[in-house]
Write a structure and sequence with these properties.
The complex is a heterodimer. By secondary structure, chain A is mainly α. Chain A has one domain: ABC transporter involved in vitamin B12 uptake, BtuC (Orthogonal Bundle), CATH 1.10.3470. Helix content of chain A is about 75%, strand content about 0%. Helices cover about 75% and strands about 5% of the residues of chain B. Chain B has 13 helices and four strands. Chain B has helices at about 5-30, 35-55, 60-80, 85-105, 110, 135-155, 160-170, 170-175, 180-205, 215-230, 235-250, 260-270, 275-295, and strands at about 115-120, 125, 130, 210. Chain B is globular, with a radius of gyration of 20 Å. Classes of the chains: A mainly alpha, B mainly alpha. At the A-B interface, helix 4, helix 9 and helix 11 of A face helix 4, helix 10 and helix 12 of B. Chain A: It is found in: Cell membrane.
C-alpha cells in the first residue's frame, strides 16, 4: 500500500472512531449547558448502550431495528434514574461534591455492568456485513458508515430538538439564564433531568454502533469519556458544532498517530491533546474566550 | 496484633495513609482536586525500583532520587494544571495520570510493560533487612507519624491559613496578598513527593510492581478515602484510609464486586454527609456535649 492510500485508510478509521468521541462530547455539552456539571459517568452510558444491545440481540434474539431503540431507552432510563436519585435531591452542592457524585455514579454503573455482563469483552455482529468497501485504494467497513450515519442523525436530531421544539427551546433558555427561565415558568429541575436522559441516549447510540468494531467491556467507558471530554474541550465546552469538529479531529489525530508513530501510545495522543488544549486555550477552538471567563467552573 | 495477615494489611493502610493525609492538605484544605495522584505513587515506585534493581543503587538513595524526580514532574505539571479549577482540574489531572499509566504499560524495555517486574531489593539499614511484616509496619507507621506532625504544623501555620483562604475564595485570597499560585504549587509538589515515598515503600515491601497498582482507579480511591473520612480533617483522611483499605478484606465474599460497595459508599457519603465521617463524628460530639451541659445545668 502506498503512503497515500495508507493515510486515507487511517483517515477513514479516524473519522469512524472520532464520530464516537463527537457523540460523547455532545453528551457532555448537553448536561454542561443545562447544569454546569461535567458528568464523569458519560462514558458509562456509552458502555451500557453497547452492553444492552449485545444482550438484546444475542441473548433475546431481537432483530436490529427493535433492539436498537430498546437499548437506547434502557440507557435513557439509567441516565434519568441516576439524576433523580443522586443529583436531583441535592441543594446547592459544591463543584467538588458534584464531581465526586458523578465519579461515584460511574464506579457504581461500572460495578453493576461487571456483575451483569462479566469481565470479558462482548462481541456484537456488524449491522450489515463485514465486506469492506474499496475506496481509492483504502477500505471502509460498512459499520463505519453506520457510525457516521448515527453521528449525522444525532446532530440533525439535536438541531431539530433545540431549534424547533418547545422543550428544546426551554432547555436552551435554562442554559442561558436559569433564573429568567424559571420566571417564565420553565421548570429548571425538570430540564436538568431531561438533559441527563438526552445525553444518556446519545451515549447509548454511540455505544451501540461502535461495539461491532471495537468490542465492549465493562471498563471501556472511562477512556471513551476522557477522550470525549478532550473533544468537548477542544471544540469549546458547550459548543455543539465544536464538539463534532473536535471529535473527528481527535479521532483522526489518534488514528494517524497510531499508524505513523506508535500504536502503544494511541490513547496517550488524545490525552496529550486534551492537556495541551487545557493549558493553552481552555475556551477551545470554537469556544468564546469572553463567555468562558464568565462561566463558573 | 500477632496475626501476620493483619500486620500486612496495616502496612498497606500505612502506605495509603501517607498519601491520604498529604492529599487531604491539597484537597480538603486547599480545595484543589487531584485525580492523578496514582501517577506520582507510580513514578516513586518505578523510579526507586529501577534505580535499585537495574542500576544497583542503594534503595534509600533510590527513594531519595525518586522523590526528586517526582518533585520535578509535579512541579512541571503544576504550573499549567493549577491554573485550572474544578472540573477542568479534575479532568487534567486524570488525563495526566492516564498518560503516565500508558507509559508504564508501553515502555516495555524500561518498565517490563503490563507484566511488571520483580526482584526489587528490600530496604536495609546497617545490615538489618526490612524483611518481616513487623519491620515494615514500624517503618511505615513511623513515617506516617512524622508526616502527621509535619502536616498538622503546616495546617496551623501561615501557609495553612493561606491555603484555607484559597479554598474559600482564590480571588479574595489574592486580593489579601496571598501568593496563591506559589502556595498551591508548593502543596501540590509536597503531596506528590509524599506519594512518591509511599510508592517506593510499596515497591520495596512487595518487591514486585506492575502498572495496574498505579491506574486511575487508585487515584480515585485515594480521593474517595479523603472524602469519606472527611475532607477538611487530617484525622478523617487517616480514618478513610483505614476503612477503605481494609474494607475489601471484610468483603472477601463479594470477590470482585467490592467496586460496587466503593461506589455506593462514596455516593451515599457525598449525598448525605459531604463533610465525611469526621463531620458526622463532630456533629455527634456537639450533640453529646450539649446534652452534658444541659445535665450539668440542671
Amino acid at each position: 500500500m502506498d503512503v497515500l492510500s495508507r493515510t486515507l485508510q487511517y483517515l477513514f478509521t479516524g473519522v469512524a472512531i472520532g464520530s464516537i468521541y463527537a457523540m460523547v462530547a455532545l453528551g457532555f455539552n448537553i448536561i454542561y449547558n443545562c447544569t454546569g456539571i461535567i458528568n464523569f459517568a458519560q462514558g458509562e452510558f456509552v458502555m451500557l448502550g453497547g452492553m444492552f444491545m449485545v444482550t438484546l440481540t444475542t441473548v433475546w434474539k431481537l432483530p436490529l431495528p427493535i433492539a436498537f431503540p430498546i437499548a437506547v431507552v434502557l440507557v435513557v432510563l439509567v441516565g434519568v434514574g441516576f439524576e433523580r436519585v443522586a443529583i436531583h435531591p441535592l441543594k446547592a452542592p459544591s463543584v467538588l461534591v458534584l464531581i465526586m457524585i458523578t465519579i461515584a455514579g460511574s464506579i457504581l454503573i461500572k460495578g453493576i455492568a461487571m456483575f451483569a455482563w462479566g469481565k470479558e469483552a462482548r462481541y456484537l455482529p456488524h449491522f450489515s456485513g463485514e465486506t469492506p468497501i474499496a475506496v481509492l485504494g483504502a477500505t471502509i467497513l460498512p459499520q463505519s458508515l453506520w457510525v457516521l450515519g448515527s453521528l449525522a442523525a444525532v446532530v440533525l436530531g439535536l438541531a431539530w430538538f433545540f431549534n424547533r421544539t418547545l422543550m428544546g427551546k426551554a432547555m436552551r433558555a435554562c442554559a442561558h439564564n436559569p433564573a429568567a427561565a424559571r420566571l417564565v415558568g420553565i421548570s429548571v429541575k425538570q430540564m436538568v433531568t431531561i438533559s441527563f436522559g438526552l445525553s444518556a441516549g446519545i451515549g447509548a447510540v454511540a455505544g451501540i454502533v461502535i461495539t461491532p468494531i471495537v468490542l465492549m467491556d465493562y471498563q471501556r467507558g472511562a477512556m471513551l469519556a476522557l477522550k470525549g471530554f478532550g473533544a468537548a474541550i477542544l471544540g469549546g465546552l458547550g459548543s455543539g458544532p465544536g464538539a463534532v469538529v473536535a471529535g473527528l479531529l481527535i479521532g483522526i489525530l489518534e488514528s494517524l498517530g497510531a499508524g505513523y508513530i506508535s500504536s502503544h501510545y494511541k490513547d496517550a495522543i488524545a490525552l496529550i491533546v486534551l492537556l495541551a488544549v487545557l493549558f493553552i486555550r481552555p475556551s477551545g477552538l470554537l469556544g468564546d474566550t469572553e463567555a468562558q471567563r464568565l462561566k463558573k467552573f | 496484633m500477632r496475626n501476620p495477615y493483619y500486620l500486612g494489611m496495616l502496612v498497606f493502610v500505612g502506605i495509603y495513609s501517607m498519601m491520604t493525609i498529604s492529599l487531604c492538605l491539597l484537597l480538603g484544605y486547599g480545595g484543589q482536586i487531584s485525580l492523578g495522584h496514582a501517577a506520582f505513587y507510580g513514578i516513586g515506585a518505578y523510579a526507586s525500583s529501577l534505580l535499585s534493581a537495574r542500576v544497583g543503587l542503594s534503595p534509600w538513595i533510590g527513594i531519595l532520587v525518586a522523590m526528586f524526580i517526582t518533585g520535578i514532574f509535579a512541579f512541571l505539571i503544576s504550573v499549567p494544571v493549577l491554573k485550572l479549577r474544578g472540573h477542568y482540574l479534575a479532568m487534567a489531572t486524570l488525563g495526566f495520570g492516564e498518560i503516565v499509566y500508558i507509559f508504564f504499560n508501553s515502555a516495555v524495555e524500561l518498565t517490563g510493560g503490563p507484566s511488571g517486574f520483580g526482584q526489587i531489593p528490600r530496604l536495609s539499614v546497617f545490615g538489618f533487612v526490612f524483611k518481616r511484616d513487623i519491620d515494615f509496619y514500624y517503618l511505615v507507621w513511623a513515617t506516617v507519624v512524622v508526616l502527621l506532625v509535619l502536616i498538622l504544623n503546616v495546617i496551623h501555620s501561615r501557609v495553612g491559613r493561606a491555603l484555607r483562604s484559597i479554598h474559600g475564595s482564590e480571588t479574595a485570597a489574592n486580593a489579601m496578598g496571598v501568593d496563591t499560585a506559589s502556595i498551591k504549587m508548593k502543596v501540590f509538589v509536597f503531596s506528590a513527593v509524599i506519594a512518591s515515598i509511599a510508592g517506593s515503600y510499596y515497591a520495596h515491601y512487595v518487591t514486585f510492581i506492575s502498572p495496574t497498582t498505579f491506574d486511575a482507579n487508585v487515584s480515585i480511591l485515594l480521593v474517595t478515602m479523603v472524602v469519606v473520612g472527611g475532607m477538611s480533617n487530617v484525622w478523617g483522611a487517616l480514618l478513610g484510609a483505614l476503612l477503605l483499605a481494609t474494607l475489601p478484606e471484610y468483603l472477601r465474599t463479594f470477590g470482585d464486586y467490592d467496586i460496587l460497595i466503593y461506589g455506593a459508599v462514596m455516593l451515599i457519603i457525598m449525598m448525605f454527609a459531604p463533610e465525611g465521617l469526621a463531620g458526622i463524628l463532630s456533629i455527634i460530639k456537639r450533640r453529646f456535649s450539649r446534652q452534658l451541659y444541659r445535665q450539668g445545668a440542671s
